[in-house]
Amino acid sequence: MHGTAPGSIPPPASLLQVGPDGLFEVGPVSDGLAWLSIGLFVLAALLEWRQRRRAGTSGSLASGASIGKPVRVVAFAAWLVFAAFWLNLVPHFAFVHQSYVEGILSLVAVPASAYVGWLVYSGRDTLFVLTRAVAVMGVVYLPFETIPALSIAGVALPAPRQVLIEHTAVMTAFVMEAVGYTPEMIESSEGYDATFRWLYADGGEEHAIYVTVVLACTGIGSMSIFAGLIAAVRAPLVRKLRALALAIGIIYVLNVLRTSFITIVTGNQYMRWFPEAVLFLFGETNPYRVSFLVSDRIISQVLAVVALIGVTYLVVRQLPELLIVLEDVLYVLTGEEHDLQEVIDLPREPTNLEDRGRPATTASVDTAGGGATEATGGEVGEASDPDGVD
């Protein structure tokens, strides 16, 4: 979210400049890198699927099919471009967005993405599951980030981001009204009905504080992560839909509560704690942004990481096939193999764990999208901002 007080409504984050000609900012360069990387991810996924289908393996890694070098090269290129995408955004998250959490995560994503690409190229085939997941994540998220409003045959279609942002603002207003807060909703600098105007009395003077809902406040990023992960693995459709509904539902509710919390705290300046220290920590001078920085950049973002871990655990209980992705992520971070099925208390129901070297329960399913094969034993192998608080 974006927050500011007092003063005019701030521009959205996508318009803030932190480098020449769009470099190191959210804009044409980052959008171009995003579309290029996702296009390569999708191409790699399609080529992998095509090769496995031609080999007659139904996509099963356990069948011994070897992914050809051309497919690996495309996947490697996708991950390298993805690393460049995150590198381009590090200054934005760290200095414009003023988020230590997102700044650190985007910085870590640079070498991690390049390393994943190298592992894929070198023969770690299980990482093609994560490659497919990123492809789906991008297909879900990028339309909201990049597609503008359109007019087709005289019919005006709003930008996807506008629909999502305004819906989030409406639900935030609903929650705030339910607990007794009724700030005025006005038009944001993007032209959306998504800015809350508060009047705050301070020292006998009345100040206007603006809190604006932006795309980062809608939860679409987290939703797209889980959509990609769930879509990438092979499992019965019913369990995949159940896992998706669980993830989307929890993220939606928690996100609206988050935006409501940040907006109320910022508008009423409830968390002007240690203002000198907070302003120094974030390189700020506006004391009215302290409540926003504490409620959003510190409390909400740390709790968001904890919440995502919790949602991941709940989703994995519905869809144990996701363990292969989590184990690969841990391998990338630690350089060691992990067997999470041994440490997580999963429900005792048929699952499809690909090439994991443990007894099958009832079926093995390839994560590349092929069919399941029956087995009775044997081995089987993812709020508003004041001053423009985003």
From TrEMBL:
Keyword presence, Protease: yes
InterPro entries: ArtA, Exo/Archaeosortase_dom, Exosortase
Region (Disordered): 346-390
Record keywords, A-Z: Cell membrane, Hydrolase, Membrane, Protease, Transmembrane, Transmembrane helix
Main location: membrane
GO cellular component, one term: plasma membrane
Transmembrane stretches, start-end: 32-49, 70-88, 100-121, 133-157, 208-231, 243-265, 298-316
Listed GO biological process terms: proteolysis
Membrane topology qualifier: Multi-pass membrane protein
The keyword Acyltransferase is assigned to this record: no
Protein name in the entry: Cytochrome oxidase subunit I
Organism (species): Halalkaliarchaeum desulfuricum
